[in-house]
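Hi all, posting the design record for the shared folder.

TITLE: backbone redesign
STEP: 1 of 1
STRUCTURE INPUT:
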């Protein structure tokens, strides 16, 4: 069911706001195992909205999965700086 919802959101992403498009695209690729494309999408999200902690949090998770712990830690720290309540 979640795969169907992810696919539907990806198909309809052009109807969403710019921030939502970036979020949907990044999640679609990262959650489907296309981590390189997910990272690229989250990097664009991070550059476009540098005060939003979401891309930093999600990048930390991807880098952790890949065993790139320094990158994971850097992104996680930045996410906490932006939003300590998360």
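Okay, here is what came back for every position:
SEQUENCE:
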């Amino acid at each position: 069911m979640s795969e169907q919802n992810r696919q539907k959101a990806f198909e309809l992403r052009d109807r969403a706001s710019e921030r939502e498009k970036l979020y949907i695209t990044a999640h679609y690729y990262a959650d489907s195992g296309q981590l390189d494309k997910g990272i690229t999408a989250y990097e664009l999200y991070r550059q476009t909205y540098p005060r939003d902690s979401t891309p930093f949090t999600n990048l930390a998770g991807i880098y952790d999965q890949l065993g790139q712990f320094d990158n994971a830690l850097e992104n996680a720290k930045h996410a906490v700086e932006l939003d300590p309540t998360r």
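COMMENT: The mean pLDDT is 93.
Let me know if anyone wants the other runs.
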